[in-house]
Structure formats: C-alpha cells, structure tokens
Amino acid sequence: MALIRDLFSKSPFGPIVEHAKKVHECVELIKPLMEALIKQDFEQIQKLHHKISKTEYEADLIKHDIRRNLPRRFFLPVAREELDGFLQCQEKLADYAEDFSVILFIRKTKLHPTLHQGFLTFVNQIFQVSGTLLTAAVELKNLAEVSFSGAEANLVLDRIKDLGVEEWQADRLARELSVQIYKLEDELKPMDIIFYEKLLLKLSAIANEAENAGDFLRAMITKT
C-alpha cells in the first residue's frame, strides 16, 4: 500500500506554481527598494529589506515542502531533473532579490543623479522578465493535466520565447549602465563604483536565472 501511495501521491505542480508566485513577490520589492535608494530613504530600505527576507523565507518553506512531499516513485509527466532544475532557478531568483536588498541595507550609498533613470529603467525590465516567467510558470498545473502538449504547451513556448528577448534587453540595459557608471569615474569614489556594479550584477543575475528557468520549462514541453 505504501508503494501505491508513493506512485499516486499529490501532484507537485500546484505547489510549484505557488512557489513561483512567492518568488515573484520577492522580485516585486526591487522597484520600491530602488526608489527608496534614489530618495536616500534608508529607513524605508531597512523595512523593505526585512520584508524581502521574510518573503524569501516563505518561498523557502514552500520549496522545502515540495521536495519533502515529492516521493521518488511519483509518476511525473516530465523528467524529475528538469522539474528540480526549474525549482532551483526559482530559488536563485528569490536569493538574488534578497541579495540586492542586502547590498542596499549594509551601506548607505547615494546613487549619482545621472544614474537614477537608467537604474529605474533596468529595474522595470527585470520586473518584466520575472513577470513573463511567472505568466509561463502559472500554466504548469494546466500543462500537467494535458501531458505538456496541445494549445497550452504552445502558449507557454511563446511566453518562453518572449522571455529570451526580454532577458537580452536586460543585458543591453546593464551594459549601457556600466558605460554610464565609468564615465563618472572621476567624480565617484571607488567604493561607490563597486557598489553600483554589485547592484548591476545582482539584477542581471535575476534576469539570467529567469531565462534559465524558462529553458527548463521548454525542456519539459519539448521532451514529452
């Protein structure tokens, strides 16, 4: 009987969708963090840092529950490695968002006025990338019900294609911001430049990891 229960345990796809939503909540907090940095509202940065840490922890709890309740013998319509890879990418998305908040929290650094709009545009693009991934991820439960095929699968593949374009746009914005930063090299303290570069790296990592998650989604569909 235990074997039968293992084979037909509760599907993990619903909880995976809930995890994706919680991860996107972490990414959503990046914009108010950047706005607080521009306003030099370090008290607000501290509050948002604690909020994003709490949200990341809640995402971790969902992730642990998924892994704890996914028996080895459970029948899956996709490769277990691809499902776990997708989950790991989502985990990194939340981690990088929290890292971004930590960088803002540990050092009260002013953002040069000429960089304000560039960083806001970049943050909006990161939010767009994460949102597109979420739009694709919420279809996981429906995809599982149709064996990752048909019109639903084609819709998700289109979303993943959009995700690749949006990640490329994020990379382009990151390069443009780097150029702007080093044009200010004579005005900025070396530690400020390091600080700005750390922000860029964490934001870029979010976009890159979102694209990686999309690759695992694509593999689930194309290999079934």
What does this structure look like?
This protein is mainly alpha-helical. The chain contains 9 helices and no strands. The chain has a single domain (2-222), classed as Methane Monooxygenase Hydroxylase, Chain G, domain 1 (Up-down Bundle). It has helices at 2-7, 13-28, 30-39, 42-68, 80-106, 116-137, 140-145, 150-183, 190-222. Helix 2 (13-28) runs parallel beside helix 5 (80-106), helix 5 (80-106) packs antiparallel against helix 9 (190-222) and helix 8 packs antiparallel against helix 9. It is elongated. It starts with a helix and ends with a helix.
Keywords:
single chain, 224 residues, mainly alpha, Methane Monooxygenase Hydroxylase, Chain G, domain 1, 9 helices, 0% strand
Task: Tell me briefly what this model is.
With 224 residues, the protein is mainly α.
How are the SSEs placed, and which strands pair?
Layout: H1 2-7, H2 13-28, H3 30-39, H4 42-68, H5 80-106, H6 116-137, H7 140-145, H8 150-183, H9 190-222
Helix pairs in contact: 2-4, 2-5, 2-6, 3-4, 3-6, 4-5, 5-9, 6-8, 6-9, 8-9
